[in-house]
Amino acid sequence: MLGCDIGTLFKVTVAGGSYQDGLTIHIQGVPPGLTITEEQIYQDLLLRKPGQGELTSPRREPDIPLIFTGTNAADTMPGFTNAFATNGTPFGILIPNLDRHFEHIEQYQVTNRTPRPGHASYASYQKYGHWDDAIGAGIFSGRYTSTIVAAGVVAKVILALHGIEVTAYVKEAAGVIAPEVPIEKIREMAKAYRQIRKEHDPIWNFVYKEGRIKPGMRFLEKTPVLAEVERMIGKFPPVPMDEARVRKEYGVHPSLFCPDLATADEMVRKIIEIKEAGDSSGGLVEVVATGVPAGLGEPVFKKLDGELGRMMSIGAVKAVEIGEGLRVKDITGYECNDQMTADGKKNVIFKSNHAGGITGGLTTGQTIVARLAVKPTPTISKDQETIDKVDRTASVLKAVTRRDPTLVARIWPVAEAFTAMILVDHLIMHKGYQAMWQQ
Known about the structure:
Layout: E1 5-6, E2 11-16, E3 22-28, H1 38-45, E4 66-69, E5 91-96, H2 102-111, H3 121-128, H4 145-160, E6 165-173, E7 176-177, H5 183-199, H6 202-209, H7 219-232, H8 243-250, H9 261-276, E8 283-290, H10 304-308, E9 317-322, H11 333-336, E10 340-342, E11 348-350, E12 358-359, E13 362-363, E14 368-374, E15 384-388, E16 393-397, H12 408-437
Antiparallel strand pairs: 1-2, 2-3, 3-5, 4-5, 6-7, 6-8, 8-14, 9-14, 10-11, 12-13, 15-16
Helix pairs in contact: 1-4, 4-12
């Protein structure tokens, strides 16, 4: 498999599958001196992992990350304080799969001859033959997106040092569209959403709040904790949530991050209505990045908008648009152009941002805006016409595997992470290039 890496100077390579022992993330280009903890990575993984309510698959993967390489084991010399900091070597993360019980494997085995329409199962069988990792869809499962989220945490730590912030959210779900909300308000709500999800997560409480895994522990000290968590899957007592208090104090929906509570409620209502009819729904994720300096992007084939278009690598994403996106076909050049002026202090002011912060493949210094169209979940509770992929006869598929009624509720943190990875890679290239000629 040749397509599991991305980046030039911030280079991320991922591996693993839905029912393999786990997934791995290998990152080159992480600068020394950063403090990145497993709990910090987990808090973003928590935003996309399944088993957290009626909007996600019932699979209960804990998604507990283990930092395996790239940090100092202790202070390197007397008088130095650099224990557990990144040291400039490749940064490695493991995410073990813990909820892969045999009854679920058998469900896949008995249906794997009849590929799911809309899923990769037919095409991957054509590519890999009977060696295809078809249990849980292997690397074609949404399971692999945990690797993107983990790498994105590292990228966001680096970007923050340069005043760059990336935020994503659900803009549309099941045909329900959110109103415009200022980015400052969105970020305030995103912070609150992260907080309530963490506080009410049994795994976070068990593993991190109670100190079972903490910085400084050796790998073999952490693995018994994973074994204990695996034995307890399905037995963790839920952390009760006072939903009325969450709504009143934080103004967020407890299971879907849309920065308008009334809209989030309607999105969830519609998603569940479609689910109860045996079907699934899609939506739109918006990503906003601020603080990005002008000039990022590497023409011709690494223009930044083209690089962001690589977010179609995220499973279920069928389109990516920047700024006005598809709407540019319906407006004139005068309407589309972002006219400029100056404030008399040599500061450039743009009168609009139809380009989404990118022209000619280079950033303008404006806010970057990208949107991702997410298709409905392919696995549904309706009979679907398919084939027997081995003997190529007509067949009917009855869905028996675990599934999400929508994917948009879990893809927004993936889009946020992916954008951060692209931006940090180009930031490193840009600063290196500028340093060659600027004095």
